[in-house]
Design goal:
Layout (H helix, E strand, L loop, with lengths): L1 H29 L11 E6 L19 H9 L4 E7 L20 E4 L2 E4 L25 E5 L22 H7 L4 E7 L1 H14 L3 E10 L6 H11 L3 E3 L7
Parallel strand pairs: 1-2, 1-6, 2-5, 6-7, 7-8
Antiparallel strand pairs: 3-4
Helix pairs in contact: 4-5
The structure holds pyrazine-2-carboxylic acid and zinc ion (ZN).
């Protein structure tokens, strides 16, 4: 019995070892290959790298400043670069200060659905709405401003929160023959996630460069955003996979 068990253990060990190596090979096969290098059909969308989303700003994203050098470098690989700018008027519908008794990060119901209320941020023409001073992408061709409709927010660079109004970005990208967008910037779980998902909805391939983003992560919003992006077919990638 003892002997038999020992033999079995020996066999089991061999099986375990071979299973481990098979598993390793399978993991290597299953590992998503890095996206092909950027070419003429690719655009980088740099989302909301604005002072108010940087530590010290009105709606600071933790470590938001760290994306700036990563994005500056990455942008050199892309023939097309779009910058987005959150651009609200004073008294905007997404500001807690617009509702007596409401505080930032509470949720209200607006005609188009639930709206998270934010501290006043990215008010048109203010220093908080300006791009981070170190953001350096001189070849960026387009700046898309969003959230300027007083009664409708817009996390997405494509479609406002009413899910109807368009910013025009879709048509511009298509006019340039762009088929794939790489998204980065602030914040991963709001404006980056919505932009990437709408890109898929509008027929583009979409990649999010994770280390070129930072998140707000409000009540699990980051995990939910990655789930939703995966479901929409957004590829999760890192700047290390993109040759500059
Ligand atoms: C954003 C909240 C409110 C963002 C913009 O850029 O992710 N988040 N406005
Ligand atoms: Zn905003």
């Amino acid at each position: 019995m003892m002997r038999r068990r020992r033999v079995l253990a020996g066999v089991g060990g061999a099986v375990a070892a071979s299973t481990a190596s098979t598993k390793k090979a399978a993991a290597q096969r299953a590992r998503p290959s890095p996206p092909p290098p950027p070419g003429p059909g690719d655009a980088l969308i740099v989302v909301d790298v604005q002072n108010d989303f940087i530590p010290g700003g009105a709606l600071a994203v933790p470590r938001g400043d760290e994306v700036v050098p990563v994005i500056n470098h990455l942008a050199k690989a892309f023939p097309w670069v779009v910058l987005t700018q959150d651009w609200h008027g004073p008294g905007h519908a997404s500001f807690a200060s617009s509702y007596p008794g409401k505080k930032p990060f509470e949720v209200v119901k607006l005609p188009y659905g639930n709206q998270v209320l934010w501290p006043d941020h990215c008010v048109q023409g203010t220093e908080g709405a300006a791009f981070h001073r170190d953001l350096a992408i001189p070849h960026a061709q387009l700046v898309i401003r969003k959230g300027y409709n007083p009664s409708v927010d817009s996390y997405s660079a494509f479609i406002e929160a009413d899910r109807k109004s368009r910013t025009g970005l879709d048509a511009w990208l298509k006019a340039q023959g762009i088929k794939r967008v790489f998204c980065c910037g602030l914040a991963t779980d709001f404006c980056v996630a919505w932009t990437a998902q709408d890109a898929r909805k509008l027929g583009f391939q979409a990649v999010v460069i994770e280390d070129a983003c930072r998140a707000i992560d409000l009540d699990g919003s980051l995990a939910r955003a990655w789930e939703a992006m995966a479901k929409a077919g957004v590829v999760r990638s890192s700047s290390a996979t993109i040759a500059v």
